[in-house]
Design goal:
Helix content is about 35%, strand content about 20%. It is of the alpha/beta class. The strands form two sheets. A seven-stranded mixed sheet has the order 9-8-7-10-2-1-11, with helices on both faces. The chain has a four-stranded parallel sheet with strand order 5-4-3-6, sandwiched between helices. It starts with 6 loop residues before the first helix and ends in a 14-residue tail after the last strand. About 50% of the residues are buried. The model has no long low-confidence stretch (mean pLDDT about 95). Bound molecules: 4'-deoxy-4'-aminopyridoxal-5'-phosphate (PMP).
């Protein structure tokens, strides 16, 4: 892959990136829970180019911006992010020939900072005193106001974020289930920007209008339920400090709440029992999917997301012994097996990214 010098080259680079982003396997995970054997379906987004679901929206947003003339060769991409988005824009932005600057709260894991820097991007850490997440967003906006060569993807306000999932992740799930003769009853996802839950729900609802869609938040920091930042939590990537503009809670169903300790234990179990090395929000999503299934008729098909892999959590509690509490759901779950519903053929994914 060569560094593009004009939008035409960018098109060919993105074509190459399509091969490494999206079209992930869907995992059918079998487990026993209170004496019954059940299955949850999880999209293996940790297998994307940089190891997270955010590659899809980074590629789609940049492509849309090129098409609209808002991103030009030579522009610097600047984004406020808690990590995976920064890694995705750093890698994909670099592949497309751009300088990338990431503003990030200074309490995110060290691995995330190092990974972003390894792609040649610059990281600006923002302390709580300097405004944390909201401060990071303000700082990128200030840069764009001062300079003409800055492009702001603005993942929290950019509907192309949702569109990436409405055009790719959602249709892939539908096709993978269809090939197995299955119909989704519910979709469950932790909310960061809300792009995943909004985009996938939109796509699934088009074919299954009665599908339940459950947004998820950490029990320790219920921003969605309260409308503002409360407490702190350890599920990096979800529940930032505000309700994002692209999230329309009124179009979704019940907000599910999962404890961060339970999420850590579940993610540890997915790795140690099944060999699925996923991050804390994946553990959270799995537990929330089990809770959603409890609310539905027996054997309902519930789909969720494994958002990222476990490697960028090496310095966090994911790699420490976590205290088990009586109230935790993960203690009642024994993971038995998983089956892969594989990647789709070229014809089945022909509509990807740009409709
Ligand atoms: N989990 C992780 C690890 C993430 O990085 C993100 C993205 N912030 C999410 C979940 C939530 O995804 P979304 O931003 O699409 O709501």
């Amino acid at each position: 892959m060569t560094r593009p010098s004009n939008p035409c080259d960018v098109a060919s680079t993105t074509q190459s990136l399509f091969e490494m982003i999206g079209n992930t396997p869907l995992l059918a995970i079998t487990f026993s829970h209170r004496k019954s054997v059940r299955t949850i379906y999880a999209k293996a987004e940790h297998l994307n180019l940089t190891g997270s679901i955010k590659d899809r929206m980074a590629l789609h947003i940049l492509l849309r911006a090129y098409r609209a003339g808002r991103l030009r060769p030579g522009d610097t991409i600047m984004e406020a992010t808690s990590g995976n988005t920064g890694i995705a824009f750093a890698a994909i932005g670099k592949a497309m020939g751009h300088a990338v600057v990431i503003y990030m709260p200074d309490w995110m894991s060290l691995e995330r900072v190092k990974l972003i820097e390894s792609y040649g991007a610059k990281v600006i850490p923002v302390s709580r005193e300097a405004g944390g997440f909201l401060g990071s967003i303000r700082m990128t906006q200030h840069q764009a106001d001062c300079r003409k060569d800055v492009y702001l993807p603005q993942q929290f306000a950019n509907y192309s974020n949702c569109e990436a999932h409405a055009l790719t992740t959602g249709p892939e799930i539908l096709e993978q289930l269809r090939l197995q003769g299955l119909k989704p009853a519910a979709f469950v996802a932790g909310v960061g920007t809300g792009g995943t839950i909004m985009g996938i729900s939109q796509s699934l609802r088009r074919h299954f209008p009665h599908i339940k869609t459950f947004p998820v938040e950490p029990a320790e920091s219920p921003t969605l339920s309260t409308g503002h930042k409360v407490g702190t939590h350890r599920i990096q990537g979800i529940s930032d400090e505000f309700i994002p503009q692209i999230l329309k809670l009124e179009s979704l169903d019940e907000i599910l709440s999962v404890s961060d300790g339970d999420s850590i234990l579940m993610a540890q179990k997915l790795a140690s029992s099944l060999g699925l090395g996923v991050g804390i929000s994946s553990g959270c999503n799995f537990l929330a999917a089990v809770m959603a299934q409890d609310r539905l008729p027996q054997d309902s098909v519930v789909v969720t997301i494994f958002c990222d892999d476990n490697k960028k959590y090496l310095s966090t509690d994911l790699f420490r012994k976590e205290l088990i509490r009586d109230t935790y759901l993960s203690s009642d779950i024994e993971l038995l097996d998983f089956r892969v519903i594989g990647r789709l053929g070229a014809v089945q994914v022909h509509n990807r990214f740009i409709a």
